[in-house]
């Protein structure tokens, strides 16, 4: 069992979004087949426009997980009054598989930060059993990961990772085309 990574504390993910936890599962998040998400890594919106592949590397097919992806800096880091904005929610992911085997409750919304550098957090929770997540969000804005986990009996996360993103300049977008 690994102690929660210091980058989650330094990046204020633990504290603002999640309570302190001990990492009990391994999770891998990858965009475009080769862009791995590591705590604090910078991605431009063009790189994260498509849904990532999220692998739950541990557990077994009898254990189920919920994946939450949020932006705690919405609409901007200096005044995040919409904290948190829900970008993706997948439930019933069997252990040792990826999120595509789960039930997408809230479809993936690509990160498009307008102001400042935003953090995008992936939190993985272990479910008590399949189909136990029933209190689903009614809106993306003002989502609260802690409250959602509490309402669904998920407890603290078993894994988490985050990346940073900011608006691309027009010159950078032109170079990408």
Describe the 3D structure.
Helix content is 13%, strand content 31%. By secondary structure, the chain is of the alpha+beta class. The strands form three sheets. It has a six-stranded mixed sheet, with no helix packed on it. A three-stranded antiparallel sheet has the order 4-3-6, with no helix packed on it. The longest helix is centred in the C-terminal third of the chain and has 7 residues, at 145-151. It is globular and about 45 Å long. The model has no long low-confidence stretch (mean pLDDT 92). Pfam families: PBP (PF01161). This is CEN-like protein 2. InterPro entries: PEBP, PEBP-like_sf, PEBP_euk, Phosphatidylethanolamine-bd_CS. Belongs to the phosphatidylethanolamine-binding protein family.
Task: Please write out the topology.
Elements: E1 2-3, H1 6-10, H2 13-16, E2 22-23, E3 27-31, E4 35-36, E5 41-42, E6 53-56, E7 64-71, E8 85-94, E9 103-106, E10 118-126, H3 145-151, E11 159-165, H4 170-176
Parallel strand pairs: 5-11
Antiparallel strand pairs: 1-2, 3-4, 3-6, 7-8, 7-10, 8-9, 10-11
Family: Belongs to the phosphatidylethanolamine-binding protein family.
Protein name: CEN-like protein 2
Pfam families: PBP (PF01161)
What is the total tally of β strands? 11
Helix content: 10-25%
Judged by helices, strands and strand pairing, the structural class is alpha+beta
Radius of gyration from CA coordinates: 15 Å
List the uncertain runs: none
What share of the residues does DSSP label as strand, in percent? 25-35%
Largest sheet: 6 strands, mixed
Overall 3D form:
globular
Instruction: Please give the alpha-carbon distance between the first and last residues.
Output: 44 Å
Individual helix count: 4
Strand order in space, largest sheet: 5-11-10-7-8-9
Mean pLDDT: 92
Helix and strand sequence: EHHEEEEEEEEEHEH
Organism: Acorus calamus (Sweet flag)
Pfam families: PBP
InterPro entries: PEBP, PEBP-like_sf, PEBP_euk, Phosphatidylethanolamine-bd_CS
Family: Belongs to the phosphatidylethanolamine-binding protein family.
